[in-house]
Amino acid sequence: xxxxxxxxxxxxxxxxxxxxxxxxxxxxxxxxxxxxxxxxxxxxxxxxxxxxxxxxxxxxxxxxxxxxxxxxxxxxxxxxxxxxxxxxxxxxxxxxxxxxxxxxxxxxxxxxxxxxxxxxxxxxxxxxxxxxxxxxxxxxxxxxxxxxxxxxxxxxxxxxxxxxxxxxxxxxxxxxxxxxxxxxxxxxxxxxxxxxxxxxxxxxxxxxxxxxxxxxxxxxxxxxxxxxxxxxxxxxxxxxxxxxxxxxxxxxxxxxxxxxxxxxxxxxxxxxxxxxxxx
Length: 279
Prior knowledge:
The protein is mainly alpha-helical.
């Protein structure tokens, strides 16, 4: 009797263990932790150059071109993810995937003309528009860079994350820095916050001018100002968003206080569309 009870107990334990393993397998986003992310991370480590100060970067497009086979393997893996699998992932996993895909396909777009271009806008803003051109497949559909950014990442009520503007990079000096690492769900909030802090710490693109008593900031805040007015992440306006980072934008205590109290008018700087090329 004791032997039979022990056998049943072991069998029940075995079934429970198997069931738990199956549940974990179904819940875990299997794709996001395979060799694809490591391969993309390795490429970024290899070909992104962080500038002194740590708030901007340049891209070694020549290096990427020499390693184009590895990049294309990564792109094919991004393209292979089925929509059903993507939709089963938690939202941070989805966001990390979309940001990484945007940045990787932007590099691929540049390489189709590199080194014979000085700006991503050389492709054209009407004909050949690099953001509207459907030059890749994602989640089973032909899409574009705008399709990722505006159609998915910025879609109302899905992620509602204004800080993605400091994560997706349009291959220009005026853009926030391309990170030398892949975005990952486990650290996504930290990476997005770090990206915004670094961008606002770069005085060539965002600053408080004591002489005029005005904030001079990237035109990103002009183009996407509405994304900072919806209350997401606690941002209710561009001024309110900038106030949170007063210590990054100004040096003197009285200037920081003026930014923090939202008393400084905001002006927008010209955007530098020159290619963010390490050469």
